Amino acid sequence: MTPRPLPHPELTDEPPGPGTEYRSNYEWGRFEERERERAEAELEAVRTALTREIAELTDALADSARKLAAADLLLRDLLIRDLRNH
After folding, report:
1. Per-residue pLDDT band at 7 (split at 50, 70, 90)
2. Backbone φ, ψ for residue 77 (5° rounding)
3. Could you give the CA distance from residue 53 to residue 22 in angstroms, rounded to a whole number?
4. How far apart are CA 17 and CA 81, in angstroms?
5. Where are the domains of the chain?
6. Could you give the C-alpha distances from 22 to 9, 10, 84, in angstroms and in order?
7. 13-38: pLDDT as tens digits
8. What are the CB-based long-range contacts (under 8 Å, 24+) for 59-65?
9. Which CB contacts under 8 angstroms, 24+ apart, belong to 55-61?
10. pTM score, two decimals?
11. pLDDT tens-digit profile of 38-61?
12. Which residues contact 7 (CB under 8 A, 6 or more apart)?
């Protein structure tokens, strides 16, 4: 039986599994390193998206707070004017 050709460690993203042979711990280590780098990149993308979303929500909340404060001042002013007129 002829052994299966071994994949080049830089050309495969396939995990070792049944029937997959790795020539050395180096190849297995490279696979794990690529998977770790891929996972870290995905996590960084999620962190970036969440940071952006949090910033947008924080800005919207601050804008709403400013509008609420302005409305409160307007109502107080109107109430004071109404009390002075009666």
Report:
1. low
2. -65, -45
3. 43
4. 81
5. 23-85
6. 9, 12, 89
7. 565 555 555 567 778 888 899 999 99
8. none
9. none
10. 0.57
11. 999 999 999 999 999 999 999 999
12. 14, 20
- Amino acid, res. 35: E
Based on the number of CB atoms within 10 Å of its own CB, is 7 exposed (0-12), middle (13-18) or buried (19 or more)?
Answer: middle
Whose CA is closest to 34, among 52, 4, 10? 10
* CA pair distance 72, 83, nearest whole angstrom: 16
Region 1-24 average pLDDT:
57
* Residue carrying structure tokens 């952006």: 52
Fill in the DSSP letter of residue 16: P
Higher pLDDT, 24 or 75: 75
Instruction: Give the list of residues 6+ apart from residue 16 with CB closer than 8 angstroms, or none.
Output: 22, 28, 31
